[in-house]
């Protein structure tokens, strides 16, 4: 299939990648394989290391590396400047992509990198891109959680440009809100992953001379959380994260955040095997629906992500809790107490001998449900 983009001049940014036809979300815009690849290390790369990897390439690949944007950082050789301006860091390797390197940065990107284990990467549209519009990715996931001021300092120090994306060009009052949201995103995202939030204060003291050391510190200074999050925290943090990401138009991680919020709430609910809290089921359903909607609009209806979420949700609904919830929604719950307003929760029980037992359902008011849970809590803590 013909590629839906062309590389041409982008005002004030050198070259850029532009859509030559309308690109719906979920479309693979570009595929690329690394032209230069170095094993990831904790210290800075030396000129020799980069040169050694470069020398092993055939002539054609060498030429493709040397024609990339060289940036402005104070390294001795042009090769090192190109490497520094264009490399992407993964867990085990640092690589340079010849085509992806042509894509400019935005703090509100309309495309994302989808990298496989063999480091081949696909640039996939995460928002509808109109014909003639420029394609943007974000150069570093950490930008999602940085204030505009810190993004400005970072982008200027490492990439030598001033970002004029919609998030950086907001009017002052909106910018305050956006900054607050992004700071919260960084805290929530780190905690959900099991880490203390990254120390972005270091960026406030970024100068061309400290930039190289700080880059390493921000990347590796990640302290694990002292106390892991509880299930209610996991659900709540993921839900907040999803809403903040949506408000910032950062679509890529929205799907996972809603799905994880639903998953952790369901997990929490299933700790009581026999109690179905109606509002919990309602929330799980609402958040799973949002995850599926987001996956459909970002990845496309036919996408593997949308389909697997749909399958997952169907599987959850085979659990007794959701069966009972569905019965209550369809008015098929016969306990008169439920219709009488004691509709906060339903207690599931079994009646009769094991071989022919029947499922019984008893309606519980909020007070009854709380009393029952408290009684159990006391029993477990006295054990
Ligand atoms: Zn920006």
Automatic annotation (TrEMBL):
Pfam families reported in the protein's UniProt record: SET
InterPro entries given in the database record: SET_dom (IPR001214), SET_dom_sf (IPR046341), SET_domain_protein (IPR053185)
UniProt-listed SUPFAM superfamilies: SET domain
Coiled coil: none
Domain (SET): residue spans on this chain: 3-140
Domain of life: Eukaryota
Gene3D superfamilies the record matches: SET domain (2.170.270.10)
UniProt-listed PANTHER family: SET DOMAIN-CONTAINING PROTEIN 5, SET-6
Name of the protein in question: SET domain-containing protein
